[in-house]
Amino acid sequence: MSELIIRKPDDWHLHLRDGQMLASVIAHSSENFARAIIMPNLVPPVVTTDQATAYQRRIKACIPSEHQFEPLMTLYLTEGTDPNDVEAGAKSGLIKALKLYPAGATTNSESGVQNFENVLPVLERMAQIKLPLLVHGEVTSADVDIFDREAVFIERVLDPIRKKVPGLRVIMEHVTTSDGVDYVSSGGDDIAATITTHHLIINRNSYLAGGIRPHYYCLPVAKREKHRLALRSAATSGNSNFFLGTDSAPHTNGAKIATCGCAGIYTSINTLNCLAHIFEDDKALDKLEAFTSINGPSFYRLPLNDEKVRFTKSSTPINFPKSFSVQNDHVTVFDPGFELYWQHEPINAEEV
Ligand code: DOR
Ligand code: ZN
Asked: If one looks up domain 10-306 in CATH, what number appears?
């Protein structure tokens, strides 16, 4: 197959940041995607509906006029979150989900949740109004090995929360292990997971073997090869519980190449090209649309995109920028480690 037409993809997990960085990255997403779930881990975080309204306005102001792109807003769950504000934000149509960061789990998660009992009233309200909870599924205790943090989170935090709050709809963000895949696969209609492009491609050797490679460092960290393969099977299976959330997370080279470098991989520019490549490798191009364009909106109970895109495979590799400049530094673009041949373009409704 050298051509494929699918509904325009959405990105169900994206970091756009703010200010100069937002202005520098927005077009990469607004060109390739119809919608994206925008992460609220700014400094300070997006905690209230008013803050999300203002943030969405700042994002929209940066979208190039020729792009149609809808930023779907989330709130950062804290122990002080007001259930009434959450409900008002959701009912207004602005707030599409809340994000739970265990305190200290990742970039800008200091305001996250320490005592999960304290957020139960918010979770109960979310269950009532069917607003999804997005979880960064890692425990943060120093006594838990970083490679085990997802599995331990499921056992110690996620499963108990789901039992305490029946009907809560949960998305395990950027799932990275077979434990996560199994938990979601057997979890029924109220649980789903996003999978990033990079976790389908890299394993822990990618950033540790033969030298430290900061541009492959993200959280949750990529795990052993068997986990990558479990993610590949889940993504390419068409299973409606799994969909794309790139977790594309820009950091400047200065912030990444440091004695304590930041977590985050920037894939917004070449994510879809990478995905077409790996779905073809796994003989699953017919499942690409489910992963990028159908399963996500179905779980969020949002309409599917009507616009279509055409993927075509070229005979020569496509060139992508290796990095782009932001103020006085650069952001490095994800290098999948292989050439990319699939490209895509929007197509008119009449053409289909
Ligand atoms: O690698 C990551 N980067 N993982 C996260 O959870 C946060 C993100 C960021 O904001 O940079
Ligand atoms: Zn993220």
From this structure: 3.20.20.140
